[in-house]
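Budget justification aside, the reviewers requested a transparent look at the raw inputs and outputs of the sequence design task funded under Objective 1. We therefore reproduce one unedited record. The lines immediately below are the structure tokens for a 108-residue chain.
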């Protein structure tokens, strides 16, 4: 979030945080603007797939007026390797596993 006033941003918060996260918020001045940045570092779990992370900046008002809220969100698009996969094969209605041995090639 950028602002021309150093005290305009009152708070940067994350709506959704996971158990194993690290949060860092910084404020610095560059090119005549105050830059407010909040970074969350996390290690998502399988259960966190399709989770939406949302960051909110609460803006302060000027001359006693209420400020607004600016939001940004990101949906986690996690991809995992298959879990607990089993394959069975039949040939002419009979289990073919007894004919297969480790290292044999099979086309699926």
């Amino acid at each position: 979030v950028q602002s021309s006033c150093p005290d305009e941003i009152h708070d940067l918060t994350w709506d959704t945080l996971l158990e194993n996260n690290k949060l860092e918020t910084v404020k610095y001045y560059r090119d005549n603007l105050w830059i407010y940045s909040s970074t969350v570092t996390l290690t998502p779990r399988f259960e966190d797939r399709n989770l939406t992370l949302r960051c909110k900046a609460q803006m302060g008002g000027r001359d006693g007026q209420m400020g607004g809220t600016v939001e940004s969100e990101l949906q986690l698009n996690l991809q995992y390797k298959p879990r607990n996969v089993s394959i069975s094969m039949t040939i002419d209605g009979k289990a073919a596993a007894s004919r297969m041995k480790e290292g044999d090639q099979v086309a699926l």
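The radius of gyration is 26 Å. Strands lie at 2-3, 9-14, 21-30, 33-42, 52-59, 69-75, 90-91, 94-95. Computational costs for records of this kind are itemized in the attached budget.
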